[in-house]
DNA sequence: CAGCTGACAGATTTCAATATCTGTCAGTCC
DNA sequence: GGACTGACAGATATTGAAATCTGTCAGCTG
């Protein structure tokens, strides 16, 4: 029942931190700014997050989780053809990243800095995504659509690495260029041929 | 006949510049330093390179060309099985990059900064590498070992992009980690299956 | 006269003083 | 007594003046 503006919660602090990051950028966003935005002393913020790094990592985690959840639906849809599902999943990941990077480049750069710092949260996120891919590959192998020599997870990881150019932030610049769509198609087709049972 | 220490040539300037970069790093290497190392005034350096950026780009180009030439031999060896050749070529590229990054990380970081600046030289280099791959793919298609739906160059570009994690400097950190060899194998196997005629 | 020098203007970088921030904690307030 | 404050020490960032660098060019030199 506690109304938002009354109690100071981790959630409220995270929201304020996102806002401060959006306004000031990652280099100039301070804990004092966050506290000021919430109308409290910065000591109170440290009651909920042990360090500034922990606060920033929590913001990263929220952001990364939003992407994961959008894709989880495609990965889990066991009814559909695994090849089509894989294609859609990879395209959705590419599209999501590309839209984020294109719509608000400054905010995207902010999150790039944050995730660079947040080793743990990123590792978890990547593990989650590879897990989703593993599910699709395993479904494909079980249905006879795919044939792979080793464990499904090895193949999933290979798929993830091979498509890095279309989801890894370090390539964000290239996502604007004209030919990328075709490059993406070519890579995905090549990978699907490699997966297909013969 | 002109002996090295007498005349000031572009070549000598490039060598001195590499040395200065190795010593001082990319941030603190100045044209004045290069001139001092050569025992000339910095005005003389500008007689051979219009700007500091042009000088640095020339250094990048030399460095990139060394890598290209090492691989060209594998790509051009028309006698060998294209699949084996492709495997070797990709492994050689990975190994070369990994060795450079591992042996002298500081120097590698220097060259990462240089190539980041040198858009043109890098684009040429990448085009060269994709050209070499195209040759291998075309040979494979002609010999009946590979079957691809589109032009060989599209496929070559897809191969290059799909293996980015194992040659793109932005992943240099990961090349030290234990599992990379296996990750590389998994990606290459998947790609070769995608290329193979059935 | 071709190649080099060195002084110069404007741009960039360095450095040290100054201000701000992080993280702690004794104490205040419901 | 549990949540919050605000002063504090040490670490980090900002700032502006001084030093250095880039790129040019008139003149020297062999």
UniProtKB/TrEMBL annotation, chains A, B:
Keyword Transmembrane: no
Gene3D superfamilies: Tetracycline Repressor, domain 2 (1.10.357.10)
Keyword Endoplasmic reticulum: no
DNA-binding region extent: 30-49
Keywords, ordered alphabetically: DNA-binding, Transcription, Transcription regulation
Every HTH tetR-type domain range: 7-67
Any Pfam family: TetR_C_27
MF annotations from Gene Ontology: DNA-binding transcription factor activity; transcription cis-regulatory region binding
Protein name: TetR family transcriptional regulator
Organism: Streptomyces phaeoluteigriseus
